[in-house]
Amino acid sequence: MIPILILFLIGFSLGRVTGGKNLSLSKLSTWVLSTAIIFVYLNDHPAGGWDFFTALLVNSTMMAVVLILWKSLRPRDYHSKFLSTAFCNTGYIGYPVVKSFLGDVGLSKAVVFSTVHTIFMITLGVFIAGLGGKRKEKILDGLIGMLKLPWVYAMILAFVMNTLGKSWREFPYFVREPISMLVDSAIPIIIITVGVELSRIKPSTLFLKDITILTFFKLFLTPLIVLAILYVLRIDGIMGKVMIMESAMPTAMTTVLVATETDADPELISMVVFTTTFLSFLTLSMWGKLIT
Q: Quick one: pLDDT at residue 112?
C-alpha cells in the first residue's frame, strides 16, 4: 500500500502547490511525469560532459542561424518567426518519438538535448519575443522561473547519484515502485496531454501565408540546418541522430505561453503550433526512417 499512498500524496501535494482548480494535464506532465523520465533516464544512462557540450553547441549554432535568417528576411517581425521555428516540442512529442526510433539510450540523449533546449527557450526565447512584443521580459526572469520547475532538481539529483555510483533501482521498494509506475505511465499520458492542449487552439485561416511558410521552415529547414551543423562539426553517432529528430519536432507549445506573456503575435504562433503538430506525424516518420 505504501507505493500507492506515495502516488496519492504526490497528487495531493501537486494540487496544493498549484491551487487544485488550476491544475491541468500539462502541469501534471511537466511537474511529475517529465520529472520522473528525466531522473530515471539520466540515472540509468549517465550523460557525459561531451553530450551536454554538443547539445549546447548545436542548439546555440542552430538558433543563431535561424535568428540571422529571419532578421534578414523579416526585419520588422522576425521575433515571432524566430520563436515559432527555432523552438521544438522536444519533450511532450520528442521523448516518445525518439524512444520509438532510438530506444532507451536515445531517450536518455534526448533528455540532455531537451534540457539545454528548454533553457534556451525560457531565456533567449523570452528575451527575443519581448523585443518584438508589447510587454518586455528579461532573461533573468526566465532563469528564476526555471528554478521553480522540479525537473531541474531531478536532473541535479541524477547527476549527484551518478557521481556517487548509485542507482534509483537500489532504493527501497516503497520508493522505487512509485517511480517505476510514474515512468511506465508517463509517455502515454504525455501524448494524450498534447492532444488535449491542441484541442484548445481554434483553427483559423488568418495568417495563411505566414503559417504555410513557418510550417515548412519548422518541419524541414530547421532539421536541415541542424544536419548541416552536424556535418560541419563532424558530430555523428546516436547523439547526432537524436539532435536531428528533436530539431524536426513541431513548434513547442510553450512558445504560445511566451508569445501571450510578451504579446508577440500569439494568434499566429498558436496556429503554427497547431499546424506543425498535426503535420509532424507525417514528417517525423520520414526523418525517423532517414536517420535509422
A: 93
Residue 6 falls inside a structural domain: no
As a whole number of angstroms, the distance between CA 104 and CA 95 comes to: 10
- Give the mean model confidence (pLDDT) for residues 98-120: 93
Cβ-based burial of 164 (10 A; exposed 0-12, middle 13-18, buried ≥19): exposed
Domain span including residue 282:
25-291
Residue 186 inside a domain? The answer is yes
The b/e string for 135-146 (b: 16+ C-beta within 10 A; e otherwise) is eebeeebbeeee
Report DSSP letters for 216-243, one per residue. HIIIIIHHHHHHHHHHHHT--HHHHHHH
19 within domain boundaries = no
- DSSP characters over 59-74: HHHHHHHHHHHHHHH-
Q: Does a structural domain hold residue 10?
A: no
Q: Is 149 left (phi over 0), alpha (psi -120 to 50) or beta?
A: beta
Alpha helix locations (H) across 19-164? 25-28, 34-44, 49-73, 78-86, 94-120, 126-132, 139-146, 150-164
C-alpha gyration radius of the chain: 19
Please give the helix or strand (H or E) that residue 188 lies within, else none.
helix 173-199
245-260: per-residue pLDDT in tens? 999 999 998 888 788 8
The CATH number covering residue 135 comes to: 1.20.1530.20
Total domains, the chain: 1
Measure the CA–CA gap between 96 and 100, rounded to whole angstroms. Answer: 6
